[in-house]
Amino acid sequence: MNENIFDKLDFGPLRPLLDNDDITDISFDNNGQIWVRSLTQGSLRVEVQGLTPEFVEKLAFQCSNVMGTTFNNAKPFLDAESSELRLNFVHPSIATNGIAMVIRKTPAKIRLEKDKLLKDDYFTQDIHDILIKCVEGHCNIIVCGETGSGKTEFVKYLASHTRTSEKIITIEDTLELHLDRIFPQRDIVAMKTNNVASYTDVLVTCMRQNPKWILLSEVRSAEAVSAVRNSISSGHNILSTIHADKASAIPYRMYSLMETDLDVNQFLNTIYRYIQLGVHIKAYYSKEKGKFHREVDEVVEFYVDENNKPQSRIIYQKLFGQEPVLRKPSPHLIEYLENQNIDISSITEHLSDDLPFKDDLEREEYMEQHSSDNSEESSDDSDDSDSSNDGSAGDGSSVAVVNTQESSSQDTEVAVAPAPVNSVPIVPTVNIADSPSEAPVVDATNVEGSAAVPEAVSTPVPEVSSVPDVAPVSEVSSAPDVVVPSADSSIETTNVTNQPSVNVPSASPVLTVPAVSQEVPASTNPPTDINATPITPTVDFSSLSSLE
To answer: I want to staple 13 with a disulfide (CB 3.0 to 4.6 A). Which of 51, 65, 171, 362 is the partner?
Structure first.
């Protein structure tokens, strides 16, 4: 794109935002909303007078004219790029809530400075010195993080510490590094891929240029992964970025981009063998600092051990809300640097060989342990309070006293254990499957000490309107000879003349009515203590047909 023509575009109300060095991204969408990404404040919405959908559409048409293309329903996407700006437009035919625009500022300068980084807790002095020594020792380094976390800026900062005599070739699909403009006196070649020259084509030419360093702006495709793999295996050194949630996941993220049936162990062995360090950068809004904060929160070393097994070793890690932890690099990295005439013993001599945790699982347990201490103490206090206020007995049960209704000459007081919370109510069961069409009715109102079986009467079987509450019991010490229904039972009764008595076995859990006998002695007094399992009274009228 002709830079002079691009500079003559009318940015109008966008100009103050473009001139503000604290702003890195400008977004226009949703029928006029304007969002910016700031280095100090993060993402925030702003109001700009005169920045309307009509103005943005006019700017898109100007960019399309400069690019020699069109922007309409047939071509709803437009990309425009200059040395320090990258623009993207989406036509309203695709963006249904209005034209969308994103402007990414890529200035030709290095924003990061050592003193400012240390002051802002970007990392510690020790890990900074180790990273710089690794760059001087030609270590291959991959930087990962989320979008907008500052991966490219950190790669530019590391590249600025390469030796001035070493040739650098940058390979990008969108211009962001600008090292050739930042260091115009150095031996730097900037290459850009497009529809004509792919990553593979550019990489073949790059090898013939004999570089010492190859800088890939971002590894985002299988072709870029192949470029990285071919570069590092051919003896060249690389600095690049990739999207990953943590540094230790970089090799697996690269393998997922391949989308082939390549053997995973073979691929990982190559990555672990030739990539020495992975760095993860985190960006978030810090309430403590009152601004958007970026920091290096993990540095991981990759190597292959003596058994040809890929290994990773956390060198530096900063847990959220915790002080950063740092330990010595492995002997593999120290030996690699010594072969490059780089000595880091003065930096690592005071460092420990181990971290409080060895792997991701121990790290999560370490974080959970420290975050749950207070919650466990509070929960213990609440448990003690609940147990002290509970009115139950020591074994979790209580004792209730139930007074029975008057069924004989004296009242009976029964001590029973309460039923479980989820127990099913006990319902008396009446078996009338084999009973005659007209069943006898039991009258207990005038019976003293015995249960009567009436003669045949023509009264129909009564309907049970409600079920009396039956208290559960656990054990029967002794059972009465005769069980007499209480006066308030829901079973309606009628008087009869003949009252042959019925014996009830004491050990039987079911109340049955045997054949009628002529003479049965009166029952004894009712029990005073019942501790048996719940008894379901059952009346069987099948044997009463002879009464007729």
So the answer is: 51
Nearest 5°: CA angle at 311, between 306 and 316? Answer: 130
Alpha-carbon span 328 to 390, nearest angstrom: 55
Question: Which residues sit opposite 325 in a β-bridge?
Answer: 317
- For the whole model, what pTM was predicted? 0.62
Rounded to whole angstroms, the Cα distance separating 75 from 456 reads 99
What are 226's two structure tokens? Answer: 């192949």
Q: Please give the full DSSP string across 265-332, using - where no structure is assigned.
A: HHHHHHHHHH--EEEEEEEEEETTTTEEEEEEEEEEEEEE-TTS-EEEEEEEE--TTS--EEBPPPHH
- Rounded (to 5) percent helix, strand, coil in the chain: 30, 20, 50
Q: What is the pLDDT of residues 284-329, one digit of tens each?
A: 888 888 888 889 999 999 999 888 899 999 999 988 777 888 899 9
Q: Which two tokens stand for residue 127?
A: 């890990």
- Strand spans (E) along 120-187: 141-145, 168-172
> Bigger pLDDT: 529 or 96?
96
Instruction: Give tens-digit pLDDT for 429-477.
Output: 444 444 444 444 444 444 444 444 444 444 454 454 444 454 444 444 4
- Please give the pLDDT value at position 366: 58
Q: Amino acid letter at 75?
A: K
**Closest-CA residue to 415 (of 405, 427, 398, 401):** 401
- Residue 399's CB: how many other CB atoms inside 10 A? 10
Q: Give the pLDDT band (50/70/90) at residue 272.
A: very high
In the chain, the largest separation of any two C-alpha atoms, in whole Å, equals 128
- Residue 539 makes CB contacts below 8 A (sequence gap 6+) with 430, 431, 511, 512, 513
